[in-house]
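Researcher: Go.
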Amino acid sequence: MILVLNCGSSSIKFKVFKPVEPLQEVISGKVQEIGEGENSELSIQKNGEVIAEKQQNYPNHKSALLEILTILQQENLQIQAVGHRVVHGGQKLTKPVLLDKERIATIESLIPLAPLHNPANLAGIYATQELLPKAKQVAVFDTGFHSTLPPEAYTYAIDFTLTEKGYRRFGFHGISHEFISLTYKKIREQSQKNFSKDVISCHLGNGASLCAIANGKSIATTMGYTPLEGLVMGTRCGDIDAGLVLAIMRNENIDIDTMDKLLNKKSGLLGISGLDNDMRALQESNCERAKLAIEIFCRRLAEKIASYFILLEKPALVFTAGIGENSALVREKTIHYLKNLGYFLDKQKNENPPENGFLHQAGSLPVLRIRTNEEKQIAYWVYRLC
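Model: Structure:
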């Protein structure tokens, strides 16, 4: 069996796949509030039913993983290989790799590029090494899919000596964008329609990014050196005038750490609305600022889509992740802005979308809703490499 781990600073999300073609998900679960004393919670599902629920103290990732592995053993699931989501591979690790001491050391060296995420990803790797010493381990990088970005896409208009030091666009959500690219290819081929091979993947969750994909390769993406750049997000500001940041720091006497928190944790939908970072709550609200937040989100999204349209040949639009998959309103408002480019929604399909499929009217360029599955994409690479 293949175990896929997505380790956050205080959480583990996991899925187990049977290594056959196509990959079959067997079991899934999560542990939350790791290191929070008795507040730690474990939940595991199989065939849509909860088979284990516990609330106890998991002081670290190793203790939580040990509990997960014990339950998997009780289910007669033997783990032969483990896939890890690793947020940042930098310029050194651009493809999924089998892990060894040297590659783990490289991931450790990249902690400054992802100080909140890579340490948590490494915690899962260390725990797995100790608890499953015979299992092969594979790292799949969120930045990896964007390693095909051309220089004109990843280079910032700053002093080039800084670019040479590594201050450049990396992009994120690459595992999701790659899954969307491959899934769209299958849907397109099954449809037997002469739709474009190019696609704009719209990963819209609390974090959000676009990816322009040509011939299966990322050629542009909205996130940058950090996940702060690009679209309006749940709590992140997205694109903003750099001079405004300097002005606020000077005029409001704000230090770097406070500004970092303001831009990453107190901006976006939450900052505009003053209410919530959750799109569902904003859609249910009658508050004018909540409505404004939704309008800004959709307009900025449409503007970015339009800017990527010129890079591709009549691309398909794919909406994915929490907001993209579930908000008919966001899809409707966004596509309304794009009618001059040839995108038109079928109202009934948009409000009652297929699991993975088309939402557009006859004569429109293709618009789809596809459920992303980053864990399955990681398992795909584990299956290929092991």
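Model: The chain has a mean pLDDT of 94.
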